[in-house]
UniProtKB/TrEMBL annotation, chain A:
Residues 2-79 form the 2Fe-2S ferredoxin-type domain. PROSITE patterns: 2FE2S_FER_1 (PS00197), 2FE2S_FER_2 (PS51085). Keywords: 2Fe-2S, Iron, Iron-sulfur, Metal-binding, Oxidoreductase. The keyword Membrane does not apply. InterPro entries: 2Fe-2S-bd (IPR002888), 2Fe-2S-bd_dom_sf (IPR036884), 2Fe-2S_ferredoxin-like_sf (IPR036010), 2Fe-2S_ferredoxin-type (IPR001041), 2Fe2S_fd_BS (IPR006058), Beta-grasp_dom_sf (IPR012675), Diverse_Oxidoreductases (IPR051452). GO terms for molecular function: 2 iron, 2 sulfur cluster binding; metal ion binding; oxidoreductase activity. This is (2Fe-2S)-binding protein.
UniProtKB/TrEMBL annotation, chain B:
The chain crosses the membrane at residues 7-26. The keyword Nucleus does not apply. This is Xanthine dehydrogenase family protein molybdopterin-binding subunit. Signal peptide: none annotated. It comes from the Bacteria. It comes from Vineibacter terrae. Residues 240-319 form the Aldehyde oxidase/xanthine dehydrogenase a/b hammerhead domain. Keywords: Membrane, Transmembrane, Transmembrane helix.
Length: 155, 750
């Protein structure tokens, strides 16, 4: 079986899969026990599976595990905890920007990736960066406020 | 406790079903529960059935409702914390075990799936079925915007009883007379505010004290937690990836199953033929089901790939393989014109219908809609010698247990149901299709837990859809025009559409469809009309329909509120002014309407190509008005701003009310602008978010919500009432902007 090694949330991990086209999402959720990234559509259309690979937001339901070999993967679990949330997570809590919360991991990861690239992202830039992260509960307005709060601009 | 008039109506209608009624009310008086009902862990002690206290001060509240984003864990915990004087940061929630103490009484009376007005069912001899559904569904169900309405009294009482128990324990421990002790912010205090004990320090002093049920509740003026925007208890876990949804459960040895359902409605599996060379590595079993096939594997993605490419599946497409949306619309048009109808509502002076005056008529349409919850459908099940264990994101754990027991041929006490967080519900997760499939797979894989998970494509094409509906509306207007609209308009409507409640009953109980319209699709309009008639035709059809956020109101509000606009324009009246006139005797409704209009600067000028539209709907006990401001540019409708006003009676958490209005509006906007499930060759044509698009953050209007307070009014729901008014508000705004009256959803400009 093919073997892959990469860093996940700062730790070196080695996994085996039956085939090299196995998407990263299933390795994270099943083999590594990191269920924060969610399955939503399987086609990269909803953003629920978003994780960071070398700091870039990727759809882990579409990225073959082979493409992550040797790289650094960050999932929501590696960001912060309820006691010590990452600044983006803290902003989401302040704005109460989740309802069912199923999309929240992906939205937070996409926001982190955006702000790493553009720490002072504008409203339009946030909207463009998060347009591929679907939310059926309708927390859009709060997500926007939370992302802007995390930039340090008043929402 | 006081029985409201509505509850007495139920007793009256069910009459001969006194046993059922007696059963529910007997328990209603006994909803406090003893100190051992809510199981205590190490370091915890039960105070009554709804609350536990830990030595470290944690207050654990039993919340027997499903958290699907609507904030129910938080809002219900606030009820207990308020009366108990707990400190909010000490409060946690847990799901309690099954007990009649926790059942949702309100949902029986006001929610899914029956109404006391459905006397036809009684006549049909199906009353036993009603009782059966009540007995099953009612124990622990979440839906119909009922949770706070149901919990308002019992959970406040539980908090007050817990507080009284702590006061007795503090008196016992300190030797001070109880009359000198007070509670506040998680502490018992004596004279001069001196701290006698923190709540957690009383754990050992409670002994065998028994909870009392006849304790006074606070006056609303003294509330310090109810009515405040207490932070959500589920949020920290949700934004840090720790919240466990249905697809996240990982019992040891878990396998995964992907499912392919027969693409046509009413079709069956003929045969699933594995490849000649045997099953590929990782694929454990093919499980044929009556209308589907499941593939069990050590990895869900692999199971799904095998279903798509490796397995040769033959279907018996069944009797509906020629069904199409076009044929359904044609049938509905014929029914509306000539079909047998029932007068579901009639009031006022029928002579107004034939009086001379201007007559207007319009036909409105709303399509089937999918729920498209973000978390695809799933259920995890393990069957072994000890019994059946389920892990499921469902809106009714007791219903799932009942169905699972039936499917596994086990007594109910051998079935354990763990309810996880729900990645969206919206009514979809009151259905029992997944639990049936999961039990069938668990039977085939005895001893091994299996997580049955549908792909997004299966979810989209095998939903229980919001019924498509057609309404033919006509009105006879007063000859003297706008001067005297109140009580002078004759309104005559015919509504054609399947009934979610009727079909649900049939599905669940295996009986013929009762054929009654959904109760909330035939509620009276709030307006003062001279004559009102609503005739209904409920076709029985093969397309599965179900409860979709706001149920009947999701389409009838569009029909009614657009038609009110048409009447206003026919009378030469401003749409807001006409509504105000027709609500002359309804001060609460007027206040809500005025609040939304004022907030949206109704009546001020807008640039060309822009327009405002208003709509008002009373649903689930709450009054909601919305004003939408739209811009039509390059042939596209953009909703720029929505101002929403709600009167839901007493407010438990204003921030959650606002969140529910925002969420309800977005859900309704998706339907107004994009949502359409179509049928061709007996199957659904949409499969993914590319052909069933939803409103994205870059199309999001600014939403402002105003809460109109009326504390003396009865409690209303908030989960659903935000959805109905938005589609008509937007359609009316499009008319204001362009002069185009769009009478079909989703709204498409000519």
């Amino acid at each position: 079986m093919p073997t892959y090694s990469f860093f996940v949330n700062g730790s070196a991990r080695t996994v085996q899969t039956r085939t090299d086209d196995q998407p990263l999402l299933y390795v994270l959720r099943n083999q590594l026990g990191l269920t924060g990234a969610k399955f939503g559509c399987g086609l990269g259309q909803c953003g629920a599976c978003t994780v960071l690979v070398d700091g870039e937001a990727v759809r882990s339901c579409m990225m073959p595990v082979a493409a992550a070999n040797g790289r650094g993967v960050t999932t929501i679990e590696g960001l912060g905890s309820p006691d010590q949330p990452h600044p983006v997570q803290a902003a989401f809590i302040t704005e109460q920007a989740a309802q069912c919360g199923y999309c929240a991991s992906g939205v937070v990861m996409a926001t982190v990736a955006l702000l790493a690239r553009k720490p002072k992202a504008t409203r339009a830039e946030v909207q463009a960066a998060l347009a591929g992260n679907l939310c059926r509960c309708g927390t859009h307005q709060r997500i926007l406020r939370a992302a802007l709060r995390a930039t340090g601009t008043s929402p | 406790m006081r029985l409201s008039r509505r509850k007495l109506v139920i007793g009256g209608v069910l009459g001969g079903g006194a046993l059922i009624v007696g059963y529910w009310f007997a328990h209603e008086r006994d909803r406090l529960g003893g100190r051992t009902l809510f199981p205590a862990r190490q370091g915890e002690v039960g105070l009554n059935g709804w609350v536990k206290l830990a030595g470290d001060g944690r207050v654990v509240v039993a919340v027997p409702r499903a958290e699907m984003g609507q904030g129910v864990h938080t809002a219900l915990a606030q009820l207990v914390a308020e009366e108990m004087d707990a400190r909010w940061s000490d409060v946690r929630v847990e799901t309690p075990p099954e007990s009649s103490v926790y059942r949702n009484v309100e949902i029986l009376l006001d929610g899914l799936p029956f109404s006391p007005e459905q006397t036809g069912m009684v006549v049909d001899g199906a009353r036993w079925a009603v009782g059966k559904v009540m007995g099953v569904l009612g124990v622990a169900a979440t839906g119909g915007s009922t949770s706070v309405r149901d919990a308002w009294h019992p959970m406040r009482l539980a908090g007050a009883s817990a507080r009284e128990l702590l006061l007795r324990a503090a008196a016992r421990k300190s030797g001070l007379p109880q009359s000198e002790l007070k509670t506040a912010d998680g502490e018992v205090r004596g004279r001069g505010g001196l701290i006698v004990a923190r709540f957690g320090e009383l754990v050992d002093a409670l002994g065998d004290l028994a909870p009392l049920a006849d304790v006074p509740l606070k006056r609303p003026a003294n509330f310090t937690i109810i009515g405040t925007p207490a932070s959500r208890l589920d949020l920290d876990d949700k934004v840090t990836g720790r919240a466990v949804f249905g697809i996240d459960v990982r019992p040891p040895g878990l396998l995964f199953a992907a499912v392919r359902n027969c693409p046509t409605f009413g079709g069956n599996l003929k045969q699933a033929t594995p490849p000649a060379g045997g099953l590929p590595p990782g694929i454990r079993k093919i499980v044929p089901l009556p209308t589907a096939v499941a593939v069990v594997a050590d990895n869900w993605w692999r199971a799904q790939k095998f279903l798509e490419a490796g397995l040769d599946i033959a279907w018996d497409e069944g009797p509906n393989a020629a069904l199409s949306s076009d044929s359904l619309w044609r049938a509905y048009e014929t029914l509306a014109a000539t079909g047998d109808r029932k007068e579901s509502r009639v009031s006022g002076d029928a002579a107004l219908l034939t009086r001379p005056g201007r007559r207007i008529e319009a036909v409105y349409r709303a399509p089937y809609l999918a729920h498209a919850t973000m978390e695809p459908m799933n259920c995890t099940a393990r069957l072994d010698d000890a019994g059946l264990t389920l892990w499921m994101p469902s809106q009714s754990s007791s219903l799932m247990r009942y169905v699972a027991a039936r499917e596994a041929d086990l007594p109910q006490d051998k079935v354990t149901v763990h309810t996880t967080f729900l990645g969206g519900g919206f009514g979809r997760r009151a259905e029992v299709d997944l639990v049936k499939q999961a039990v069938a797979v668990a039977k085939a894989m005895r001893g091994t837990p299996v997580q049955v998970l549908w792909s997004r494509e299966e979810d989209m094409a095998h939903d229980f859809y919001r019924p498509m509906a057609l309404a033919r509306l006509s009105a006879v207007l007063p000859p003297d025009g706008a001067a005297a609209a109140q009580d002078a308009i004759a309104w005559d409507a015919v509504l054609v559409g399947q009934s979610a409640g009727s079909q649900y009953t049939s599905r669940l109980l295996g009986i013929a469809e009762p054929g009654d319209p959904d109760p909330n699709s035939i509620e009276n309009l709030p307006y003062g009309l001279g004559f009102h008639r609503l005739s209904t035709i409920v076709p029985r059809g093969p397309v599965p329909v179900g409860f979709w956020r706001s149920v009947g109101h999701s389409h009838t509000a569009f029909f009614d509120e657009c038609f009110v606009d048409e009447i206003a324009h026919a009378l030469g009246k401003d749409p807001l002014t006409l509504r105000r006139d027709l609500l002359r005797d309804k001060p609460r409704h007027r206040k809500v309407l005025d609040a939304a209009a004022r907030g949206a600067n109704w009546g001020t000028a807008l640039p060309a190509g822009s327009g405002r539209g208003v709509a008002l709907r009373v649903s689930f006990g709450s009054i909601v008005a919305q004003v939408a401001e739209v811009v039509v540019e390059s042939g596209a409708i953009r909703v720029k701003r929505v101002v929403c006003a709600i009167d839901c009676g007493p407010v438990v958490n204003p921030d959650i009310v606002r969140a529910q209005m925002e969420g309800g509006i977005v859900y309704g906007l998706t339907a107004a602008l994009h949502g359409e499930i179509t049928i061709s060759k007996g199957r659904v044509e949409q499969h993914q978010f590319d052909d069933y698009p939803v409103l994205r953050i870059d199309g999001m209007p600014a939403i402002e919500t105003m809460i109109v307070h009326s504390d003396d009014a009865p409690l209303g729901g908030v989960g659903e009432p935000g959805t109905p008014p938005i589609a008509p508000a937007v359609a009316n705004a499009v008319f204001a902007a362009t002069g185009q009256r769009l009478r079909s959803l989703p709204l498409k400009l000519a």
